[in-house]
Every structure is written in C-alpha cells, then in structure tokens.
C-alpha cells in the first residue's frame, strides 16, 4: 500500500469510502484498492494533471474580494466519492417527493392559500417574509411548477443517514461543476472507471432542455429558450455559459431582451427581433424587472413580469418561488408532504428551532454552544454561527441578533458531517463533505444521479462553500456490488 | 437560427483580434529576418513597425527611444498596447469567454491555452534568442484555431461574422503593410537600392505570399508587380481582392445588407481602376489612404446595421 493512506482514520464520523473496520466499503472497494496501489509520485502527478485539465478547460469561478473580481481555478480533489445505487435510489425518491410538495406549496401560496387557512403553516411566517412576492399572486404556471430547478443540500450523520439541510429554489448553482468533475476524472484517472458501471451525469443539459421546453407557452414547435445571465462578472457566469452551450440555447444579458407593446419578450438579433418562449434566468427576483421589483436594476428586462403574467413567456425558476426557500419554512416541509401528497416523508430533515417561537428561542439562547445558528435568508454560508467553534464574544453577538430579530434566525443541532478520503499535500486525510443533487420539475420530475459533492478542505472544518475555500469531488452512483 | 447582435459583435471582434495577433507576429517575424540580411548601418529603424501598426501615440506614452528592445517589448509583451500580441490575444479570449455557447467547445480551450502560453512566454521572448520560437508558436496556434473554426463551425451567422471580422482586419493590415512599409522604407535615403528586393521579399513574407509570388510571377521581386499581386491577385488569401470578395459573399445572405454591399462594390471598383504598375509612390500612397477610409466606412456600416442594439442607438442619439 502506498504510504499516503497510512493511518487513515475517520474517527467518530461516517466515512463515505472506509468503514469503521478500516476496510473499504463494498461499493468503493476497487477505487480504494487501485488508488492505494498507486505510487506516491503517481498520485501527485495525477493531481497535477487534474489541475492542468481544469486550467485548460477554463473551469473557474469568481469570488469578490476587496472590491475586485478574482477568477479562480475550480478546486477539485481527485479521489471520487462513491455511493451505491441501492442507497441512492431511496434518496432520489425522497428528493422527487420533496420537490413535488414544495411546488404544490408555492402554487397554493400564490393562489388559494389552503395550507394557511387550514393552519398547517402559520400565515405570518409566509406572508410577512421578504421572499413572498405579492406581485406573483394569481399566477398559475404550467404543470403547477414554480421551482423548476431545485438544488437540495444533503449531509450524512454518523450513521450514514441522509438529511436535507436546505432547498435552494431561487437560482441554485453548481451543476456545471458536477459535469466537469466527471470529465476531469475521465481524463486523469481513466483506469478507475474501467471496471465500474457508474450512472452517467452528462445528460443533465438535455434533461434541463426537456424540462424548459415543457414550459413553453407556444405549443409543440421547437421553443426559443434563453439563459439570462447578469453577465461575465457574476460568480456563476462560467456555469451560465456552459449550460447555454450544452443546451444549444442562447445566452443573453438583460439588454439583449425587450418586451414589446404586445406583452411578448423578444431578443435583439442580427435578423431583427425574435420572440422568446422560455427564460431560464440566473438573476435574482429583485433584479429581474425594474418595473415590478427594484427600479434601479440595470440587469433585468423591463416588463418581463408583465409578459409572464400574461402567459406569453415562461420564467424558470418562476418569480416568487423563493417563498419556499426559507429556513423557517424549511421546518414545515415534512408537514407539507403529508398535507399535499398524503405521504410519509422519505428523507429526514434536521431538527430545526424557530427563534420566533418563545419556547424554541429560550432553548436556543441557553444552548448556543451546541447549535448552528443561521439567518433565515442567506446563502453561501455567510452570517452563520457554529456554536462549538465560536468564541464567547461571537455567541453573545448572535444572542443579541436573535433577540433583536427572532423571525430572521433558526438553529439546528450541530451534525457530525460524514467524511471522505481527500488528498491533502502528500497524504490522504478525512475531510467533511456535503452533497447537492439537482431536481428538475416541469411536465416530469427528474433527479441527477449523485450531484455536486463539496468538501471542506481545512481539517475539522464544516464550511464547504467554494467562496470560502471549499473543494469538490466527483460523485459516483455505482451499480452492482461485486 | 438567428444570432444576438451582441454575440455577433463579439465574434466579429474575436476574429479581428485573433487575426491581428497573427498578422503582428508575422510582421515582426519577417522584419527581424530582414534586419539580419541588411548591411549594418543601412538597416531601417524599428520605428517602422510602430508606424505600420499606426500605434505611435500609445508607444510614446510608454517609451521614448525607438530601439529594438523597446519596440519588441511594446509589440510582443506590453499588456495594453492595442496592436500588440499580448493584448490582442487577451481581447480575443475575452470575447470568446462571453460567446463560448455558440462556438465549438475546443475553440475556447485552445484560445485559453494560447492566452496562457502568451502570458507565460511573452516577456521572455522580447530578446532575439527566443523571439522566433515564440512568434512561430503564436502563428501556428492562431492558424490552428482558425482551422478549427473553418472545419467545425456550421456556415451560419457565427461563421459569417467571424469571417467578416477576419477579412476586414486582414485587408486593413495588408494595406498598411504596403502603404507604410513600402512608402517609408523605399523613401529612405540611407537605403542602398540593392536592398530593395530584400525589402519587398520581406513584405511578401510577412503576408505569407512569397511562395505564391515565385510560382506566379518569378523569383525576382519587383515593386510594381509585388504591389499589384497583393492588391489584386484574387486567388491569394491575403490579397485585398480576395478579402473583398469574401466579405461580399458573407454579406449576401444577411438582412439589411444594402449599405454594406454598396461599400464593398465601391471598393472593388476602385481596386480594379487602379494600376499599381504605372503609378508613382505618391499616387500609391494617396490611393491606399482613400482605400483605408473606405474600409473604415465599411466597418461603421456593419456596426450600425447588425451590432448596434436599440439601446446603444438611443444613447448615441441622445448623447
């Protein structure tokens, strides 16, 4: 065995590849064996090859720092994460179920509001939230689908059980990296894939295209689909361009589109104006339409909400879908699944304390050192407190914030996130990770096999966001056991 | 399938910058070669390259003396020199970065690699020791990318605007090489007339036309015949005639092409009415000057017809 794997131990955590006995898990057996047989120099040279491939493929993301945009190469760990197809099938069903319920909820909220009338979800937490957009009331998008693309963050506890951490229903990103990670593994570790039957991920763009096509307001002919990006300086621009190219769709910026007197959306082309059927927008609600939302937005398309309400264009994700993407609403998803679908939730949620409830708040304030406190409304891992890792001063600061604005905070127990072997410097060490699968919902529902695995590259760290130094891994769903 | 005006514009400029990088590399390449053939003391100055590329103001912002070191630094490595190789490659890449979705995937990878290569080696390639190798790599890679576009891109709008950009840039460069190159070099009193043929041959080389000239006309390069050849030989890919014919062909399937087509036809008529074999150097200069003006008008027409979005037009009228 090559020395870099010596003394690999995941301690009390669930490790994705190595069981507590120190032996590889069944699905990962051949990957581990092969990697362990590689000489030390070979591991290093594969990593260099991966870095080179990433540079050549131009896989990058942008971070904002000190007022500047910095284009960074995508961080990638060469050791894949392996999950058996049998384990995944259950998760996949749970994700589809969740997505169905969330879409029922959004459609209900902007129309009849039955769930509020029946007292299953308290009306004030929905209607007083900044995520509820009154401009969207009364709209009924095709197939009752609002959150057409959902990125759900999953983690595994010490027993390996999957939990949903959050649902990203606004403009979830990361799927292009999932695809590129597979591409990189194929290039730099081709022999790893030789004897495995791994569920392919490459058909995501065609599935996305099918989902978006099913939303077109104009019948069966080939719809005109565009990807609306805020532009080259957005941190996910790489992905916007990538998806447009893979779908054969047009990548547009706000000023490439306009809404004419007939309330239809057009793009400016060399042949003159051309009508657009489906807008896959990667711009937040607030910036989408200066007529309906923020009047100072220069990124959006004036009148596009008007066109959408008139039924002349589909917008994915639909404006207002973020009403279900709220850490307070999250606590009610199991109830929604029972209410709308009459089913038992297949995927576990994390126990969530709502600081707005006096009882919960009292518990949270007394147990800050055992909890993760999150603002109800931020993404990217910003503004959260991990109680066990924080100083007394930080905890006091958060206690004050909670008292001041309880609606804005929730708390959850600190999960012992699972780990996987990760190649750090010259050694293989356990690092914590999560998983973001993507769920598509239009006429049909489809779940990616696997998703984007993000890794906290610092020892012991639980923060996996790439904007904060996280890395990523190729994620394999493998068939068969032997 | 149609194409966004913004995308068409960026593709057009991507092609122009890529062509500019290649042409500038060619020009430096053949000039470096020429300088080594000319007896010491009678060699022309390095400033000629800056004049050909019409970039004196930017040069004088950075440097005072026109010596080899400075001019090479300016044209090869300077990141903000408009006609410089480094800047052209950066700008080409930037334009592809925002139009990747309409180009074959490998094009982005190769432009990106070209950029990384230039970034790493341009500084080191200012001196003569590595200059050749650098320029040859740049030329080869630009040609590879062009080859990729020619052999994989469907003949639609993307291909059309790329070709328009490439041909317009090339025609522009060819007229400048003849105008400034020929006029200035040959007007120089210091030069011995025995080096004339060397200079003409060098200019032909910089247009990659020496081989064709030998086969078509003969090994002895002579001024009038050479100018005629690069202006009017319709089979030569870097001749003005060839560029105009190509532009005419790509304009034909576009909507609203009247104005641009009229300008191309006018340029073609002007070209056939001119006889390089029988004109003086002064007349040649006047002709090329007017011709450049026509090319500028042609670009404005393309810009106004297909690139200017309604929004830009509105601000243009307002402001």
Question: Could you describe the 3D structure shown?
Answer:
- The complex is a heterodimer of chains A (about 475) and B (about 325).
- The radius of gyration of chain A is 23 Å and the shape is globular.
- Chain A has helices at about 30-35, 40-55, 85-110, 115, 125, 175-190, 190-195, 205-215, 235-245, 285-290, 305-310, 325-330, 335-340, 360-365, 390-405, and strands at about 60-65, 70-75, 75-85, 150-155, 160-170, 225-230, 250, 255-260, 265-270, 270-275, 280, 315, 350, 355, 370-375, 385, 410-415, 420-425, 425-435, 440, 445, 450-455, 470-480.
- In chain A, helix 3 crosses helix 13 (about 335-340).
- In chain A, about 50% of the residues are buried.
- Helices cover about 30% and strands about 25% of the residues of chain A.
- In chain A, strand 18 (about 420-425) and strand 19 form a beta hairpin.
- In chain A, the strands form six sheets. A five-stranded mixed sheet of chain A has the order 3-23-22-19-18. In chain A, strands 13-5-4-20-21 form a five-stranded mixed sheet.
- Chain A has a domain at about 350-415: Dna Ligase, domain 1.
- Chain A has about 475 residues and is an alpha+beta fold.
- Chain B is mainly α and about 325 residues long.
- Chain B has one domain (about 5-310).
- Chain B contains 15 helices and no strands.
- The model of chain B is unreliable at about 315-319 (pLDDT under 50).
- The interface of A and B includes residues 249, 268 and 270 of A.
